[in-house]
C-alpha cells in the first residue's frame, strides 16, 4: 500500500460488530475501533452510515484520513457502489458509495466484506505473490473469493456463494454446505446431538482432541464437506493457494491436515493448491476496505 | 472479428481429428478442411505440426492467410505458448507457438481447445453479450472454461478440469465426473450394464425416449452428476449463461430440461444462469483458434 494521499480508514460492517482501522501508506495499522452493528430495522442502512461516520470521526482525531473504504456483507455490486441485498442486515439496493460520500466529503471506496478480505490477504497476507488465489472464510457462513492477477472476481456480486450449495452430508440427505461446515453449524450440530451447550466450534474442536465421538463425527462431516468444496474450487479455478479464514481457521492441524490430505488424495492434476490459514485474522475485511480507499487516492 | 490483416486460419487438434477453418474479417468461414490427428508416438508433436502446416497450405490456396491460430487439448499454458501435457496425445512441454511460427513464417496464436471454444462461443456464438459465461463441453471428457469480461481464465492452464472431480454417483462409490457424465461414459455404462453395443450417447438417449429402464438409469445418473457440477460452478462463478457443448449438447430437452430444473430447484440466489446449447458445434475450437490468430493481426 503506497497511499500518496496520506492515511486512510477502512470500515468492515459485520453481522454483530463493525470494525474500523486507520492505516498508513505502508499498510501499518495506526489505530482501530470497534462498534456494535445496528440490529436489523427499517433504517439499518442509515444507522450503519451513522456508525461508520462516528468511527471515521473518532479515528480522524488521530490524523485526518485521505479517503474511506466501507465493506458490507451480502450481495454487493462494487461496479455500481450498491449493496444489493443482505438477509442478515435486512436491506436491499442501498447506494452506500454515494450516500457515504455525501455525508463524509471524502473519496469513498465501497465493496464486499469477503472480496475485500481476499484483496487484503492477497496484498498484505497469506496469498501474496499468488497469481490465482482463493480466500475461503469459514465462520457463521461460508463463501469464497477468487483473486486473479490481482483482481477479485465479483460477477455482479454473486460469485463465491458456495455456502448455499446443497451437498449430501453424513445423514445422506441434501443440506446446504454452510449448514454442515460453517463454524456455527459445527457447534449447533454438536449441541443438537448431545444436548450439551458448547462455546463455539473451538469448543467442539477441543472435544475432538479429547476423543469425544460425537464431536469427532460432527467435525469429520464438516471437514469432509469443506474438502468437497475445496476439490470443486480447485478444479474450476486452479488456485495456487487457498487461504482459509473465519473462526474455523484457528483450528490448526485438526482442520488443515485433513484438508491438505483430501486435496492430495482426490486431486490428480499436477497443480495442487497450498491450503493455509489466513494471516490477517478478523482484520482482513477492514484492511481490505482500507485498500479500496487507498486505491482511490494513491498508487498501491 | 475485424481482421484488418485479411483472413486467418484456425486449427483445432482433437483426439482423433484435426479441423481447420479459413475465416474472413467478419467471422465467416470461407473454407474448411479436416485431417486425421496423428496417433500418439514418440514424435506426435512434430507430426501434429506437419498436419497443421499441410492444412494451412491447403487452405492458403484459396487465399493467403495473415496469421494462424493453433489450439490443442490437455494442459496448455497460453502465456508461454507451451503445451504442458496431454495424456491422450502423449506429449509434454512442447513450445508449439514458436515451433509453428518458425515453420510457417506467419504470426501464430496458440491456445487451449476448450478455452478457444469458449472465446468463440462468447464472441460469435451462444454466450454473446454475457460478461460472465461458462463453456462446458461434454464429449469424450468434461471440462469448463470461464469467460470473464471477454477473457478466458486459464490459471496457468489448470483451470476448469472438472471432469477429474470425484463424485458419488448412483452406485454410491467415488468415481470421477467424466466417468459418469461424459458422452463416452454414457454409452460405455449402458453397454457394461446390458451387454448391448450402442452407437454413442445419442443412441442411449434414443433408448431413454423409448422407455428403456437401463438407458434411463444411466442417463439420469449422468444428468444428476452434471447438475451437481452446474451448481458448483454457478456458486463459484455466477455466470449469466452456461453454454453446453460437445456431443451431449445435441440431446435437446432430455438434457436441458432437467439441468435447468436442477438450477431452479437447487440454487436459491437471485442470479441463475441460463443453460443453453452451444451455437458453433464442433467448429468452436477451430473458430476460437482463428480468433487467437485474428487478435494478433487486427482489432477484433
TrEMBL record, chains A, B:
Q: Organism's domain of life?
A: Bacteria
Q: One MF term in GO for this entry?
A: kinase activity
User: What keywords sit in the KW lines?
Assistant: Kinase, Transferase
Transferase as UniProt keyword: yes
**Does Kinase appear among the keywords?**
yes
Q: One Pfam family from the UniProt entry? A: ROK
User: Cross-referenced InterPro entries, in alphabetical order?
Assistant: ATPase_NBD (IPR043129), ROK (IPR000600)
> What is the annotated signal peptide range for this record?
none
Q: What family is this?
A: Belongs to the ROK (NagC/XylR) family.
Q: Which PANTHER family match?
A: BIFUNCTIONAL UDP-N-ACETYLGLUCOSAMINE 2-EPIMERASE_N-ACETYLMANNOSAMINE KINASE, ROK (REPRESSOR, ORF, KINASE) FAMILY
Q: List the protein's name.
A: Glucokinase
Instruction: Specify the species.
Output: Saccharopolyspora shandongensis
